[in-house]
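Anyone able to model this chain together with adenosine-5'-triphosphate?
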Amino acid sequence: MTPDTALDGDALTLGFGRQVVVDGISVSLRPHLVTALIGPNGSGKSTLLRSLARLHRPRSGTITLTGTDGAAPRPIDSFHARDFAREVTLFSQSRPAPQGLTVREVVAFGRHPYRRRFAGLDDEDRAAIAHALDVTGLVASAERAASELSGGEVQRVWIAACLAQDTGIVLLDEPTNHLDLRYQVEILDLVRDLAHGHGAAVGIVLHDLDHAALVADELLLLSNGTVHAAGAPLDVLTSEHLSEVYGIRVDVDVDPRTGRLRIDPVGRHTGPPRSPDSTREDHQ
Ligand SMILES: Nc1ncnc2c1ncn2[C@@H]1O[C@H](COP(=O)(O)OP(=O)(O)OP(=O)(O)O)[C@@H](O)[C@H]1O
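re: yes, here you go
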């Protein structure tokens, strides 16, 4: 992993047809930091992330990449596809498992940007693939047909392929969705390790605000294609901001035991908190 690469989107406006879905947003992904995009359905998170991965062309604004070549930041469009793929990877949802390939072969896709035409895997490729299989809990499944796996397992295979790509910029669109409890925690730990341990610049879309509070150094709270609040989790994940953006009452406090933020979306039918005594009475 090469540290000190960075990706900067400046005043980005993005849309589909006549609809503007991201309206003048700036976002900076810096090495050693996890930047999370949060916000309601349709607020523009995935479109923004895809634009950073060159999969959605901005109507206006610029996206520049500071690459591993040590050169000054330059527009992402000026990178050759293979060079860009050595700098930036994107995990996104809803990719089916390819038919007829083992898990290891799918993860090996991540090494494509490094391979010469018709050349096989070299030791570095094999080491990157082995590491990616290991940290995503797929070693025992490596020779299984990818098409036989469950939805959550397939998701881990694609996350592993991104990790095998070994880029300084890592973009993840809801990587914990569909995963069981263990792998939600493991993927979040992995995301933190990538940034804090390996110096990657991580951009991640998350719906789960507890996950965002756990993993993010910086947060962008989007609402209707604009930034409602940005900064450290304690400043962004406030009752006021979340209630405004999600349109329901959301209580936030800090757990005195762990020091973690506790985010409590209060639905219309939520009753008063129960004390252990009242629970006992219920059963009498
Ligand atoms: N391919 C597309 N064609 C037309 N409109 C699209 C397309 N993809 C997204 N949109 C629209 O762009 C807006 C933003 O979508 P986007 O997926 O970026 O939001 P999001 O914040 O990631 O939402 P979610 O939390 O539901 O995943 C939505 O109104 C959506 O309908």
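The CA atoms of residues 54 and 77 lie 8 Å apart.
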